[in-house]
Amino acid sequence: MTDYLGKFSLQGKIAFVCGGVGLIGSEVSQALAQAGAQTIILDIDGRKGRRLEGQIRRQGHRVYYEYFNLIDLKNLEDALKAFVKKYKTIDVWVNAAYPRTPDWEKSLEELRVDSLRKNVDMHLNSFAWTSRLIALIMRQEKTKGSIINFGSIYGVQANDFTIYERTDMTSPMMYSLIKGGIVNVTRYLASYFGEYGIRLNTICPGGVFNHQNKRFVKNYEKKVPLKRMARPEEVASAVLFLATEASSYVTGCTLMVDGGWTIV
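The structure assignment produced for this chain is given below.
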């Protein structure tokens, strides 16, 4: 009989979580570690990284923090080669980082072209370039690995601006541009590397509760069939599925974790 629970195991695997100390990234790091992977938390925030490393290690799991600057495109290849030399292989790579400029939340009317270009370079281009490099490494090492990129509901459909009414919040034009690009470049790479058993998928969360403006939360939850925002661990569970053999025949997928937001 098939060991279905065993398909969710990452025993003997090496998993990297880029943006591994963030709201969702920290849960992803814990999920992969609990599934048995030797998990490497990648982030620029060393204080939070080492603290999370300690927390997960105290649970008895193998986890390490490494400094990693995703937006340093010129040096990404050297950094990745150093990881392979140190940890021997890359079985799972998760791009969960959320790089952005300080003026990220400016309105469309206030948006400047230099900010648009910089954010696309920091976020979309870094995800695309890293995914390309990781897939090339996996092909060279003959690793049938899994690469998971974080998209968003706003990478597959237009914004509903009514949820921001009577708040000082908005969703930048750059966000839709970046997340839509991530969805399709992941499909491209999934098609290109599929014959080598390398899988690439995009996970698209809906709004994740993080003590946002109460009016925004109320407006948002009214729009969702499940009538609530997501919890970080619910997104992490979906990432675990895409990282393991449980999803061995899933590639190029855009997995919505949105409480039904995109169906209505």
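Interim note for the steering committee: The radius of gyration is 18 Å. Strands lie at 14-18, 38-43, 63-67, 92-95, 146-150, 199-205, 254-257.
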